[in-house]
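Posting for a labmate who doesn't have an account.
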Amino acid sequence: MGYTIEAIREAPVQPSAIFDLYMDPSTWSVWGHNVRWARSDGPLAEGGTVDVRPLYPVTYHCRIQRLVPDRLLRIEVRPIGMTIINVYEVEPADVGSRIRHALEFTGPLSGPLRWLGVTRAYKSSLGDEIRHLIEFAQTGS
């Protein structure tokens, strides 16, 4: 059985500014919680892949599971023993945008990861990720 960790925040920034950053893997290392670099061979599309190097020495070939323009990007990562779906979602809100980032964990090693208390650290990391994303969308740095 799987589980989801998420962070949600509203911010005074246009949803298009947030979504543009989701669609540009070269920016992911600026706001992503565990990204040294990311790159794709072309525009992001469902079924396509993005190579992502986390802060440790491995490169994941991540599959774009779902892409809803100006709204949602779901990316599948398959480390050994589990599947992680990274969810990046933005929608209009009274203040500007409502941003939701989530990690959906499944697979045999996802349970032990949860029991080790990693979920608390990931929840904090997702909150930081959204904060960095908002700052980057507002200032470009």
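Reply:
Got it, the structure tokens are right above this. The CA atoms of residues 4 and 51 lie 23 Å apart.
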